[in-house]
Each structure stands twice: as C-alpha cells, then as structure tokens.
TrEMBL record:
Chain ranges of the CobW C-terminal domain: 248-344
Catalytic activity entry: GTP + H2O = GDP + phosphate + H(+)
Protein name per UniProt: GTP-binding protein
Cellular-component GO terms for this entry: cytoplasm
Organism of origin: Aurantimonas aggregata
Keywords: Chaperone, Hydrolase, Nucleotide-binding
Pfam family, one: cobW
Function noted in UniProt: Zinc chaperone that directly transfers zinc cofactor to target proteins, thereby activating them. Zinc is transferred from the CXCC motif in the GTPase domain to the zinc binding site in target proteins in a process requiring GTP hydrolysis.
Length: 370
C-alpha cells in the first residue's frame, strides 16, 4: 500500500456517480474533472475506455479498471472486477514526485443499482480500510426523469440512495414540479443541485460524508438529510402525497433518550437478518447511553454495516438524539419502528416486548413477511 498515503492516515475519498440512461453523467463528469486537480484523482468508468488522469488507468482496459456494468445490475463477476480495480488503485506504487491518490470516482451505467458497490466498500477488509465513501451523486434529467422514476426501478433506486442529485436539461421543460415531487417522494432529505446555475460543481458534489474532508468538522444533520438541511431551495413538499412510488420510500426513527449500545447492535442484527434485502441504505447517528457526549455514526447498505465511527462530540447546534434514516424497498415502517421500540425501550405502547421479538422476530402483530 502507498506508504505516504497510509502514513498520513487519510483514506481515499470515493464518489459513486450514477444516473439513468441519457441523464448526462458523462457531461457532468467532464465538468467535475475540469474543476478538480487531476494529479491525485482516478476515474473508473463503465464504458470500453478509461479516463486516465494520473497514469493509473491508461495501460490496458482489462487490468486498469474499466468496468462495464450491463443488464441493469452489478453481477458478481463485475463487482469482483471493480473490487480488484479499487484494490489496485489503493495499493499501487506511485512515483515519488506524484502526490498520493486522494479521490476515485466510479461512474456506473444507466441501468446499475449502486448498492452493491456501496456494500463492497463495507464488506471488503482492504477497501473498508483504504477508502471512505464520499457520497453517491445521481444525475436526473428534467426531460425524462419523471417518466423514468415512474417506470424504472433502477432509476428509483439511484435517486433513493443519493446524497446529492444533479438536475439537468431544465431548459427543455416548462413544468418542473412533477419531477421534484417524484424525487421528494423517494428521498426527501437529498440535496439538489441545478446543473445550469453556473456555479462550481466540485465543492457541492464532493464532501458529502458526515465529516468534511477539508475542515475535519462533522455535519451529521446535513449527511442525514435532517430538516433544514435539504437542498430543495424553497420547494415545499409538505402537502404532497409521497406514496406515489410506494415500494421505495424513506423514513426516520428519532429518539431523544439515550439508548444502550447493546440494544442498538441487537436491533441492527435483527434488521439485517430479517429485512436486509429491503434496506437500500441506512444512515444513523446514535445517542448512546454509555457515552452520551460522543455520538456514534452508522452507515449500512442491504444487510451490511460499515464499522461504527464515534465522533469527538455532538456538533454545535445539533441536539443529542438518535436519528436513524432508512431508505427501503418494500420495507414496512411500522414493523421497523416496533422492533426499535422493543429493543430500546421506546414509547410505542403497541410494540411487542423485547423477549417476544427475540423469540420470534417476525411475529409482530399485524405484520408478516414472506
């Protein structure tokens, strides 16, 4: 592994760039690259070719990380090739005069589900050590975006798991409200960026994680998409029906009282075992009883959990509370809330007790899962 980078203790920031077919990912990528120093950045693309910016990706397509994702999913073979490429980028020696690799952008195909990539970052030991997920950026075009979200599950997943959404082709439509409503139905806390506004993209699309890589300050409320941090720029969705896309939706569990870490672990384990495939993404900040002044940050995809990270203190202006944001596909909100209450002693009077849940985790009154 690169001695300089590992000695500095700085993980490589990884951005997943996704979006449905024709949304404008390539144009966006070119803009990002024009704004970003190229000596310390590499790009893994999904076409038969590579954008080689630091001599890491321009030798041969088979060995240097050009990953083609096809048929709308990341199959095991392709995901393995992507893992191999990311390992190579993290461990490959760089010339002494070359700055250490600081950022990798992975561009998916228009039909890709980003969650397997995120899961690989959490489950592969070397990747989990070498990389930090900087964020998922999803490109959505005004011209076809609303129809894609209504008709294509891949497009819905890409929007649901996004940390930032870049809106393109706004000049080609007169009515933007339907698309904004569809996005809010799937991911109400996501930050929106208008590609036409003339402002720089890099400073708005990079640094989406819980800790700002430049300042080192944590901003979990922004990362979680908490109220007041959404990027809807004055667009009020409070009165809209957010059930239009039914199967994929997000919700938050909030509890002010500190909870036992053991109970949180048990809740997450049971959720992974019974609902893992329904969880597209989970973000959380936990007010733990054992260390109430130092919150724990959690991040999960499907049934996989990134190793917990503990902050030094609650960020200024953020009230100590547990906030778990879940984005699910056919994930039953009542079932999840009941499980959390059962393990943490919440106030849901209709929730089963913990012993009953542990004995039969699927036997929540009124709910059954196949």
């Amino acid at each position: 592994m690169s001695g300089d980078r590992r000695a500095a203790g700085a993980p490589i920031r990884l951005t997943v760039l996704t979006g449905f077919l024709g949304a404008g990912k390539t144009s966006l990528l070119n803009r990002l690259l024009s704004e970003t120093p190229v000596a310390n950045l590499a790009v893994v693309v999904n076409e038969f070719g590579a954008v080689g910016l630091d001599q890491l990706l321009i030798e041969t397509a088979s060995s240097d990380g050009v990953i083609e994702l096809s048929e709308g999913c990341v199959c095991c073979t392709v995901r393995g090739a992507l893992v191999d490429t990311l390992v190579m980028l993290a461990t490959r020696s760089r010339p002494a005069e070359t700055p250490p690799l600081e950022r990798v952008i992975v561009e998916t195909t228009g039909l890709a589900d980003p969650t397997p990539i995120l899961a690989s970052l959490m489950t592969h030991e070397l990747l989990a050590d070498a990389y930090a997920l900087d964020g998922v950026v999803t490109v959505v075009d005004h011209l076809a975006g609303a129809a894609n979200l209504a008709e294509r599950p891949e497009a819905r997943r890409q929007v649901a798991v996004a940390d930032r959404i870049v809106l393109t082709k706004g000049d080609l439509v007169a009515e933007q409200e339907p698309l904004l409503d569809a996005i809010a139905a799937l991911n109400p806390g996501v930050g929106l960026v208008d590609a036409r506004d003339g402002e720089g993209l890099a400073q708005r699309l990079f640094g989406c994680g819980v800790v700002d890589p430049v300042t080192g300050k944590a901003d979990p409320a922004r990362w979680l998409g908490a109220p007041g941090h959404a990027g809807h720029a004055g667009h009020d969705h409070a009165g809209h029906d957010h059930g239009a896309h039914g199967a994929i939706r997000s919700f938050a569990i909030v509890q002010a009282e500190p909870v036992a870490w053991e109970a949180v672990v048990a809740f997450l384990d049971l959720m992974a075992a019974t609902q893992g495939e329904r969880i597209l993404r989970m973000k959380a900040i936990v007010h733990v009883r054992e260390s109430p002044a130092r919150p724990i940050v959690l991040h999960g995809v499907r049934s996989y959990q990134h190793p917990p990270a503990q902050l030094a203190a609650w960020p200024a202006g953020m009230s100590p509370e547990t906030r778990i944001v879940l984005i699910g596909d056919h994930l039953d909100e009542i079932y999840v809330r009941d499980l959390f209450a059962a393990f943490t002693g919440g106030l849901r009077s209709d929730a089963p007790d913990r012993a009953a849940v542990e004995a039969n985790p699927l036997a929540v009154p009124g709910h059954s899962f196949g």
